[in-house]
Design a protein that fits this description.
By secondary structure, this protein is α/β, with parallel strands linked by helices. Helices cover 40% and strands 20% of the residues. A 6-stranded mixed sheet has the order 9-10-11-12-14-13, with helices on both faces. Strands 2-3-4-1-5 form a 5-stranded parallel sheet, with helices on both faces. It has a 3-stranded antiparallel sheet with strand order 6-8-7.
Length: 400
């Protein structure tokens, strides 16, 4: 049974838009599948299509020619063109601009894995001419639509990479995760960092997996890896730009005792984290169960971010903290994640935060129990099971 991806409808709606639709995301998150599905959708609507995969030599050869000939290839007797891994196309932004500005009416869908390479192509010449769509691994809510869906415990072990969801064999799932990790290191990373630093980069990946959800600093990471802080910062930027690691910053309102420059990092998939750590035990049997559950919640809600939203965390020098702050139109909504049942208790960090930020009238507690609500001191507290984390943005929007 096919996974119903939430991003499919926005992409399908793009078929008749003039803007160039660009899918970006890490390797193996389903960009190629989505391109081919949109291609079938366009054909059902009676449109003529053409598809290129620039990791296939026979396709890339077609683009090793003059720009005028590439322009003709992309606009001649075709309505919709699909270009997978378009960052291998030289002068892509210039060519896309020419197609967009022409009267040919050709629609382009393109995908790319390495944001660093993609940004080189999507320069100012495409301002106002493109639509960017972020593609993530499958969320738990997406795979929950499957008839034989994995449970949340299984999802926390193997994550949501689409190629693993229908694979019943645990050993093959681990092998696939290892292949995805190696593909990333060999294709996206090897060309971006010095050969002699590959081992250090691998060590950095391991440390980030190990410290997921904890405060990190370039200085402490540099000391453990054996590189300079400046190099670590550049590697963290590479990890962010290739969609493998998502940093979030602290939330503050200029209060003196809040940590303003600290940050936390989350890898883009729980299965990838577990293959880095070589640990596939159920979260209930692991000392890092809290980090796994917190990461699960982060991955569910981060996929729902919109341009008017920021996702942060909060912590004071005294150690009071809230795992996540969903900031919509500058109004904070605190989200605390607990690994077990909490009864009707309001975690201490939430209480401290709500005293300091009186504009926050809604808070969320993600835990292992049932959905419920309570009101205290003018604040509505939503108690949700971890698996319902994806509902948080909807609850907040309904309030607005």
């Amino acid at each position: 049974m096919e996974i119903k991806r939430n991003i499919f409808k926005p992409l399908s709606d793009d078929i008749f838009s003039k803007e160039i639709s660009i899918l970006i995301g890490a390797r193996q998150v389903g960009k190629t599948f989505l391109l081919k599905k949109i291609k079938s959708e366009a054909q059902k609507k009676g449109l003529k299509t053409r598809y290129f995969d620039l990791e296939i030599p026979s396709d890339i050869i077609k683009f090793n020619t003059k720009e005028t000939e590439i322009f003709d290839l992309l606009t001649g007797d075709v309505d919709v063109v699909f270009i997978d891994e378009f960052h291998y196309l030289k002068n892509a932004s210039h060519i896309f601009k020419a197609v967009y500005d022409s009267q040919k009416g050709t629609k382009i869908f393109a995908s790319g894995s390495s944001s660093i390479e993609v940004h080189k192509h999507l320069q100012e010449s495409l301002a106002g001419r493109k639509r960017i769509h972020r593609v993530f691994p499958c969320s738990f809510s997406e795979i929950s639509s499957l008839k034989e869906r994995p449970g949340i415990d299984d999802y926390m072990i193997f994550g949501g990479m689409p190629g693993l969801v229908h694979q019943p064999d645990a050993t093959k799932k681990k092998e696939l995760l290892q292949d995805i990790l190696q593909s990333y290191l060999l294709k996206d990373i090897k060309s971006l960092i010095k050969e002699e630093n590959i081992r250090a980069f691998n060590n950095l990946l391991y440390l980030l997996a190990q410290s997921q959800g904890s405060l990190i600093s370039a200085a402490s990471l540099a000391q453990e890896v054996g590189l300079t802080s400046r190099t670590i910062e550049s590697y963290l930027e590479i990890l962010s730009q290739t969609f493998v690691c998502y940093p979030i910053s602290s939330y503050s309102n200029n209060l003196g005792n809040e940590l303003k420059k600290s940050r936390k990092c989350y890898l883009y998939d729980l299965g990838i984290r577990n293959i880095l750590l070589k640990d596939f035990r159920p979260h209930k049997n692991r000392p890092d169960a809290g980090a796994i559950i917190e990461s699960f919640v982060f991955l569910e809600i981060s996929k729902k971010l919109t341009p008017d939203v920021e996702l942060r965390f909060w912590r004071t020098r005294e150690g009071d903290e809230v795992d996540f702050i969903w900031v919509l139109n500058r109004v904070p909504y605190p989200i605390e994640v607990k690994s077990g049942d909490v009864g009707d208790e309001i975690p201490k960090g939430l209480k401290v935060f709500l005293r300091r930020y009186s504009e926050a009238k809604r808070a969320f507690i993600l835990y292992g129990g049932k959905k419920k609500e309570k009101v205290a001191d003018g604040v509505t507290f939503h108690y949700l099971h971890w698996s319902d984390a994806n509902l948080i943005p909807e609850i907040i929007s309904d309030e607005g």
